[in-house]
Amino acid sequence: MKQLLFYIGLSIFLSSCLDLDENLFNPDTSISEYQFDDFEGIQEIDVSEYTIPQDSITLFTLEVGTNGEKIYATYVGDISRIGLDTVILYCHGNAGHMDFYWPRTKLLANVGGLCNYGVLTFDYRGYGLSEGKPSEDNMYEDSDAAIQWLKDQGLNDDRFMMYGFSLGAAAVCELTANPRTIAPSKIMLESPFASADVMVQDGSGLSLPKSFFVNLEIDNAEEIKKISQPFYWIHGTIDDFLDINTHGEVVYKNYQGTYSEAHRIVGANHADVPLVMGFEAYIESLKNFITLN
Q: What is 2-290's CATH number?
């Protein structure tokens, strides 16, 4: 009887896990326009004390994929100066859309002073108003389209940096380890996961291969071994979504490049690292890393 109950429970569990590929991507498509500071929906942190002038915010679209699907992107800064400025490409997490992550974009745009660095962010296919369906391959293609746009504006790799939060860390690791256009000169990862395999093991408690549950090939812990650029890692010590020990620490330990920084934020969970660290301390920490020679 116990054996029968076990297999019934296992079958229910497995049926729920078969959707992990889709569940990893949790977009919000309920918006009809991007509102930035006027967005009244849920946001993980409140940075209302940090402002961005309207004339420094440019919303535009990029065409991606063989069908020419449109994804939305936002540049914070002066587009005419991209050929001269240092620019951070921000790859957001698995939920929401650009308005949801707007507070994080604003913090990056205040590193070193207001709009001292340009910041480009975008919605993957299927997020916000972006057309298409989210997938691992599409996420990489969409991220590279953003990089190509920056290159077309005159940006070179010396002044190009990438920041990935949670799921976005996969795009950063993939396109730094295996660049398709230009590679960043430095990378910053916040709350990254080690791999789809580790995520499955953490979530299931079963010693079964990733392929038993998902088709995702994401493996930041392996890709980071190919990266030599300076690496900034920040992670909350009580992250209950991507455990710091089984995810972030593994990525950080596997890095074999020239320079790395680890920032373990005591008492921070998955999405409140800048808040718990303190916004000014967070901004100053990033500025110090970016300005390293």
A: 3.40.50.1820
- CB 246, CB 202: distance < 8 Å: yes
pLDDT number for residue 161: 99
Q: For residue 279, how many C-alpha atoms fall within 13 Å in the half-sphere facing its CB?
A: 15
The 8-class DSSP code of residue 124 comes to: P
The two three-digit tokens of residue 151, written as one number: 């290159």
pTM for the whole thing? 0.89
Q: How far apart are CA 281 and CA 276, in angstroms?
A: 10
Q: Residue ranges per domain, the chain?
A: 2-290
Per residue in 191-212, pLDDT (tens digit) is: 999 987 777 666 543 334 444 3
What tokens were used for 157? 């790799």
Task: Give the closest residue to 140 by CA, choosing from 128, 148, 131.
Answer: 148
Using alpha carbons, list the distances in angstroms from residue 197 to 13, 55, 214, 252: 17, 44, 9, 17
Q: Which residue do the tokens 């209950």 mark?
A: 240
pLDDT digits (tens, 9 = 90+) for 68-109: 999 999 999 999 999 999 999 999 999 999 999 999 999 999
3-state class percentages of the chain: helix first, strand second, coil last, to nearest 5: 40, 20, 45
